[in-house]
Amino acid sequence: MQNVPAGLYPIRHAMGCFHLLVEDDGKSGVLVDAGFFGETPRLKKLLARLGLPPAAIRAILLTHGHLDHVGSLPEIQEWTGAPVWAHAEERAHVEGRYRYTGVARVCGWAEATGRFVLRRRLGHVDRTFVDGELLPFWGGLRVVHLPGHTKGHCGFYSERHDLLFSGDLFASYFFGSHKPPPILNSVPEHFAASFQRVAELNPRWIVPNHYDLLDGARLRRRFDSLHRRLRRSAPERFLAGAAGHP
């Protein structure tokens, strides 16, 4: 890891990463997302290494409610007792009752099949947040609504560290950076405005949920490169997106 603050711990799984953010006193922390199925043992191992009990997790903040971000949520909720925070539009995803439309029906079918085959319980949202709200964790995390992947998809911006957790706005691996595949996107018409919003926020570092190596500066450069490519391929959408945000 490099170009990220102390206290940021990635927990990698087959579908991506979720993150533990430990406060300066080293006694408590917050999770950004909860990972795919079977991630609780990885979290337990990390907390044991840091000398933290389950109750040290003060909250679970969801970027959105897709299964690779909430698959382990019920077990982690039960084990830690931590409240789950999410945008109101994500409650239906977390509770397994969101009605997918268009090509995104494939995503809904895959999630329903996964839950049925693996007999997974559903999580629940305890508290909702809104765009611009300052959450009292890790020195302050500002909610940044970034729809496109889902209606309530959000990032979390740390002004203190000038770092944005961008969720699934984009993915970045050694073979390239890209938006999520169309079958996973519920409101793709909002991507342009969300990319533009991150560009205007202009964070020093960016940390998405799907990446190869954790390097906040390199991931930021990859975001910039992808944004330029998208602007060139569809300039009219990005001009419209610059005019406002949903």
How many domains? The number is: 1
Task: Could you tell me the CATH topology label.
Answer: Metallo-beta-lactamase, Chain A
| Largest sheet data | 6 strands, mixed
- Would you tell me the structural class of the helices and strands? alpha/beta
Given as residue ranges, the uncertain stretches (5+ residues, pLDDT < 50) are none
So, CATH architecture? 4-Layer Sandwich
Helices and strands in order, then pairings?
Layout: E1 8-13, E2 16-22, E3 29-32, H1 40-50, E4 57-61, H2 67-70, H3 73-80, E5 84-87, H4 91-94, H5 105-118, E6 127-129, E7 134-135, E8 141-145, E9 154-158, E10 163-167, E11 171-173, E12 176-178, H6 191-201, E13 205-208, H7 216-233, H8 235-242
What are the key terms here?
single chain, 246 residues, alpha/beta, Metallo-beta-lactamase, Chain A, six-stranded mixed beta sheet, five-stranded mixed beta sheet, 8 helices, 13 strands
Offer a concise description of the structure.
The protein is α/β, with parallel strands linked by helices. It contains eight helices and 13 strands.
Explain how this protein is built.
With 246 residues, the protein is α/β, with parallel strands linked by helices. It has a single domain, classed as Ribonuclease Z/Hydroxyacylglutathione hydrolase-like (Metallo-beta-lactamase, Chain A), CATH 3.60.15.10. It is built from 8 helices and 13 strands. Helix 6 crosses helix 7, helix 6 packs across helix 8 and helix 7 packs across helix 8. It is globular and about 50 Å long. The model has no long low-confidence stretch (mean pLDDT 91).
